[in-house]
Amino acid sequence: MIKGYYITRESYDSLKDKTIGVAKKISDQLDYFNSLKDVQCELLSFYPNVPKLKRLSVYFTNTFYDKYLEKVAKVNFIYVRHFFPITKSLISFFYYIKKIYIHCQIFYEIYSFPYDIEESSFKQKISLLIDVFYRRKLKKYIDHLLTFTVDKEIFGMKTLHIENGIDISRVSLAGYDETKKDEIHIIAVANFNFWHGYDRLIEGLHNYYKIPRSQKVFIDFVGDDNAGYKALVDKYSLNEYVKLHGALFGKNLDSVFNNKDIAFSSLGDHRRNLFGMTSALKSREYLARGLPIVTSIRIDIIPDDFKYCLRVPEDDSPIDIEKVVDFVTNLYSNNKRAAITKEIRSFAEKYCSMEYAMQSVKEYILKS
């Protein structure tokens, strides 16, 4: 039997709520590892369930994670979801793993890169200084640095590329009401921040309605508004056409996905110096629901000739809504919606599954 641990800094309580994106992803990865023949993988939370003042010791001591060393004795691998900041205690933990359990493979997943620009508050900047100092030590102990980006090297280490995957069976197809033919409905789902760039979409809608339109366009935003979109919608008097739902899950989220014609992935990755391509989980969900996608950055699993993806400029310019309208109208002409939904879902089943996403990791685990 091949034994391993999936290590995360998320708390056990937060991971019980499968409506949270991080919890869903960790659960899907863990389920996948345990679906492999002769593999047993357990979840291990490094959540610092101690008073905040005592947590500071993780930055300055070697011993904060020592209590877990005996727990991971004689396992074949550990899979670690990125810690921020990387600290002296974490490096010490890896040091002793490699010293005591020399044959244990360490997989370290960086789920967002580059991430330096994302840390904007004073507290985050202090944490980033600590992270920058200690992350350069990872290369001494990590066997496989996993990334979703095209970077061949991170922190002085060669990377092993993986994809983001989801459990397709958990995602419902978007339903559709044929009576809405004269309207175009857009959806965007995220925990909205400035790098999502959906202000470009609102600006584009504002430009679109500067003249009277027979073809009405509506947008549903689903997620916490950390980017001030409500203020922008109010500024342009677009409340008739834009709805901000806040965070939704389960059947409530399924309901909002119904009657949507197209889904918007990120429009602002360039704002955090991310170019090339992305592996965003949300793009997988859009595809699994059978919806075409608009994106400014290449999505890793989508080929350039994929006819159900519209690329827009990778800059801060307003989105050209007329082009989106033309794209949607042409796609769904001749009552092809049911066939298109089925084709996109089939694509997702092939390229968005955990089996496809974790293939490179699987090969190393089974060799351990």
Overall, the morphology is globular
Unreliable spans: none
The CA-CA distance between the termini, in Å, is 10 Å
Sheet bearing the most strands, described? 7 strands, mixed
Mean pLDDT: 91
Summed up, the helix count is: 14
What fraction, in percent, of the residue positions are helical?
A: 25-40%
Strand order of the largest sheet: 2-1-3-4-5-7-6
Structural class: alpha/beta
Task: Calculate Rg over CA atoms.
Answer: 22 Å
**How many strand segments?**
15
Strand/helix succession: EHHEHHEHEHEEEEHEHEHEEHEEEHHHH
In percent, how much strand structure appears in the residues?
A: 15-25%
Describe the structure.
The protein contains 14 helices and 15 strands. The strands form 3 sheets. The protein has a 7-stranded mixed sheet, with helices on one face. A 6-stranded parallel sheet has the order 10-9-8-11-13-15, with helices on both faces. The chain is 34% helix and 18% strand. It is of the alpha/beta class and 368 residues long.
Keywords:
14 helices; 6-stranded parallel β-sheet; alpha/beta; globular; 368 residues
What topology does this entry show?
Blueprint lengths: L1 E7 L3 H4 L5 H15 L3 E7 L6 H4 L1 H4 L16 E5 L6 H13 L4 E6 L11 H14 L8 E4 L5 E2 L2 E5 L21 E7 L9 H10 L7 E7 L6 H7 L6 E3 L5 H8 L4 E3 L12 E2 L2 H8 L4 E3 L2 E2 L9 E3 L9 H11 L5 H15 L2 H4 L1 H9 L1
Parallel strand pairs: 1-2, 1-3, 3-4, 4-5, 5-7, 8-9, 8-11, 9-10, 11-13, 12-14, 13-15
Antiparallel strand pairs: 6-7
Helix pairs in contact: 10-12
